[in-house]
């Protein structure tokens, strides 16, 4: 497919060609995981984290868990998107309102550049999970804004540009715990404080692999065919939840309208680091790099709530597959 990614070229995107004979659309980095066990002293996992290009290299916001498993957000830097160094201390979010600043936990950060500012959205503990938002222009000082929604909500993901002049965020209303349900909605805002005009995007269900719940992954990628959204789809087995990675295409100007959603996932937990860890059987996509010159995509995903892994695909092939193999065909 002659697809165009709307966005800058990224010639230094981490990349490996698809191994010959591999029948899949998405293939794993052969030196996975990129972030292994004990990445910092007394840290038991860095996973479900976001990476963006920065000053010729890469930077990101990372979910970091110590021995007590309470998640915090740390900044990490990388020259090549493969080797990372992490700030040992969590991000010190600045906020004038102590009620908003109050910390319970912070996890699954997404980082979205809009008009030269980087926005971090994450699952923020405030009497239950909701969506925290912070802005930064240098990854040193972070200003925390109001929580976007009432609890309970997870997987808050901003679109990387305003749509009809408004910020637009995907999210998944949930419950207080490991939610056994969940659909994806959009909400819009003129100022990142007041959110409304909520629209249902897509529900769970259909094929077994996403029968329990679904949630947005990295910020949607703008293409000539609409927004390409990677997401996690969850099924319930006799041993608990299993998280796979799927993809869908959303309308460019009305992104709550689904053009097509692939009927099969692109990646299911199979590798040892996806099956062995704190929560076995989890592939959770959160960060994404794309090169508009070649259509290459590098997708970072949390593996087994313990590791960060990387996989690759070609935007044109993935969008073609979504179009050719839609749900409810
Ligand atoms: C979800 C979140 C994710 C986690 C997943 C699998 O509800 O907590 O951060 O990766 O469960 O445990």
Architecture overview:
The chain is globular. Helices cover 5% and strands 46% of the residues. It has a single domain, classed as 5 Propeller (Tachylectin-2, Chain A). A hairpin with a 6-residue loop joins strand 13 and strand 14 (196-202). With 329 residues, the protein is mostly beta strands. The chain has a 5-stranded mixed sheet, with no helix packed on it. The chain has 3 helices and 22 strands. The chain binds beta-D-mannopyranose (BMA). Beta-D-mannopyranose is lined by residues 48, 107-108, 178, 243, 279, 282, 284, 302, 305. Beta-D-mannopyranose binds next to strand 7.
Protein topology:
Elements: E1 27-28, E2 43-54, E3 57-66, E4 71-78, E5 85-86, E6 93-94, H1 98-101, E7 106-114, E8 117-125, E9 129-136, E10 142-144, E11 153-158, E12 167-173, E13 184-189, E14 196-202, E15 213-216, E16 221-223, E17 226-237, E18 240-250, E19 258-261, H2 272-275, E20 283-291, E21 296-303, E22 307-314, H3 315-324
Parallel strand pairs: 6-10
Antiparallel strand pairs: 1-22, 2-3, 3-4, 4-5, 7-8, 8-9, 9-10, 11-12, 12-13, 13-14, 15-17, 16-17, 17-18, 18-19, 20-21, 21-22
The protein binds beta-D-mannopyranose (BMA).
Kindly summarize this structure in a few lines.
The chain has helices spanning 98-101, 272-275, 315-324, and strands spanning 27-28, 43-54, 57-66, 71-78, 85-86, 93-94, 106-114, 117-125, 129-136, 142-144, 153-158, 167-173, 184-189, 196-202, 213-216, 221-223, 226-237, 240-250, 258-261, 283-291, 296-303, 307-314. It is mainly beta.
